[in-house]
């Protein structure tokens, strides 16, 4: 799947920034690939890019209109269709990370055919996956896991990959969600894989490699989330991690989108080890990544110090303070590069 750049990011009329995490993630890691954003009336998210009309974006050279918003179930709101059709008529391809396939919507399919444009359903892989086998394979792996959805697992994995390469390790980022695929250019959205093949897809994403190579795997969902734990467990078994990083947002009391209480960090560590031992008996936690965006600097530093002392693990905010402390832990546990 070759998605033409630069991108014009469509945020729709989402109610908060988390609902625009695809667009925001692309801007945070690939801002140079983006021209601007389009927001409908009532949109409460902002990537910081210039607001544009579709005509403005086309005139500026945008090649692909990226649907940068998400929602529970990956649905396409009907009132977004006119914007997508207009982008196709303006000469842009359209790329989506939603579950719904763009070509299944007659108006979109017709506009793409009429204007000779491409439709990219990033969430739907064209690869056929085998079932997972659980056989130990060479190479080393780190998986981001979470106390909830949307707590920073993708950012943690990207930041860890960057920090390990800077330290002299050979590592690569493995994308398991639509935003990660937009950022890395490779991967598979595991939540769109048929359940029997999730662990096999995770094995495909993080294949056998040299023993000195680290694969840093983007996490999905949470083992404690009643909606998405099935994907999380399949990813855990298939990725067969040597180490994992627990990702946490400290102001939440309920899991996103449901009334289930948030688990503790210790509960996540214990259950991840218990379940992960099925395919890697040596699995261990190597650090805690905390999304401190809602905290002031002094409060964030105090919270990280408290968490680090409580669990005896390095605790950091990957965006604010980097991943060096967790790389130090990996070096101590598994050896220097």
Give the secondary structure arrangement, pairings included.
Blueprint: E1 7-12, H1 21-30, E2 34-39, H2 54-59, E3 64-67, H3 81-89, E4 93-96, H4 106-115, E5 119-121, E6 140-146, H5 153-167, E7 170-174, H6 178-184, H7 198-205, E8 213-217, H8 229-239, E9 243-248, H9 265-276, E10 284-290, H10 297-311, E11 315-316, H11 318-321, H12 324-334
Parallel strand pairs: 1-2, 1-3, 3-4, 4-5, 6-8, 6-9, 7-8, 9-10, 10-11
InterPro entries: DgcN-like (IPR011669), DgcN-like_C (IPR035086), DgcN-like_N (IPR035402), P-loop_NTPase (IPR027417)
Organism: Roseibium marinum
Protein name: Putative NAD-dependent epimerase/dehydratase family protein
Report on this model:
With 337 residues, this protein is of the alpha/beta class. It folds into 2 domains: 7-121, 3-Layer(aba) Sandwich (Rossmann fold); 140-334, Rossmann fold (3-Layer(aba) Sandwich), CATH 3.40.50.300. 35% of the residues lie in helices and 16% in strands. It is built from 12 helices and 11 strands. It has helices spanning 21-30, 54-59, 81-89, 106-115, 153-167, 178-184, 198-205, 229-239, 265-276, 297-311, 318-321, 324-334, and strands at residues 7-12, 34-39, 64-67, 93-96, 119-121, 140-146, 170-174, 213-217, 243-248, 284-290, 315-316. The strands form 2 sheets. It has a 6-stranded parallel beta sheet, sandwiched between helices. A 5-stranded parallel beta sheet has the order 2-1-3-4-5, with helices on both faces. Helix 4 (106-115) links the parallel strand 4 and strand 5. Helix 1 packs parallel to helix 6, helix 3 packs parallel to helix 4 (106-115) and helix 7 packs across helix 8 (229-239). The longest helix has 15 residues, at 153-167. The protein is globular. The protein starts with 6 loop residues before the first strand and ends with a helix. Residues 40-124 form the D-glutamate N-acetyltransferase-like N-terminal domain. InterPro entries: DgcN-like, DgcN-like_C, DgcN-like_N, P-loop_NTPase. Residues 129-327 form the D-glutamate N-acetyltransferase-like C-terminal domain. This is Putative NAD-dependent epimerase/dehydratase family protein.
């Amino acid at each position: 799947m070759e998605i033409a750049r630069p991108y014009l990011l469509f945020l729709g009329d989402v109610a908060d920034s988390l609902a625009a995490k695809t667009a925001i993630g692309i801007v945070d890691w690939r801002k140079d690939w983006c021209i601007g954003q389009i927001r409908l009336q009532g949109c409460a998210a902002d990537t910081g890019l210039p607001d544009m009309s579709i005509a403005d974006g086309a005139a500026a050279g945008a090649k692909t209109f990226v649907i940068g918003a998400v929602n529970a179930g990956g649905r396409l709101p009907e009132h977004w269709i006119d914007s997508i059709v207009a982008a196709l008529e303006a000469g842009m391809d359209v790329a989506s990370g939603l579950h719904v396939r763009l070509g299944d919507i007659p108006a979109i399919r017709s506009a793409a055919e009429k204007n000779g444009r491409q439709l990219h359903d990033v969430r739907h892989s064209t690869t056929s996956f085998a079932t997972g086998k659980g056989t130990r394979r060479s190479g080393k792996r780190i998986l981001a896991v979470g106390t909830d959805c949307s707590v920073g697992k993708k950012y943690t994995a990207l930041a860890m990959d960057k920090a390990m390469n800077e330290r002299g390790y050979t590592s690569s980022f493995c994308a398991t969600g639509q935003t990660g695929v937009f950022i890395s250019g490779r991967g598979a959205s595991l939540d769109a894989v048929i359940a029997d093949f999730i662990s096999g897809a995770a094995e495909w994403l993080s294949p056998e490699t040299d023993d000195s190579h680290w694969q840093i795997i983007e996490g999905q969902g949470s083992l404690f989330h009643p909606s998405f734990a099935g994907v999380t467990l399949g990813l855990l078994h298939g990725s067969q991690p040597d180490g994992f990083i627990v990702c946490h947002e400290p102001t939440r009391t309920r899991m996103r989108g449901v009334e289930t209480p948030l688990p503790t960090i210790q509960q996540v560590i214990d259950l991840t080890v218990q379940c992960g031992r099925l395919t890697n008996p040596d699995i261990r936690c190597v650090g805690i990544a905390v999304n401190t965006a809602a905290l002031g600097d002094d409060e964030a530093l105090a919270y990280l110090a408290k968490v680090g002392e409580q669990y005896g693990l390095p605790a950091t905010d990957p965006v604010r303070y980097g991943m060096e402390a967790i790389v130090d832990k990996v070096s101590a546990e598994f050896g220097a590069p």
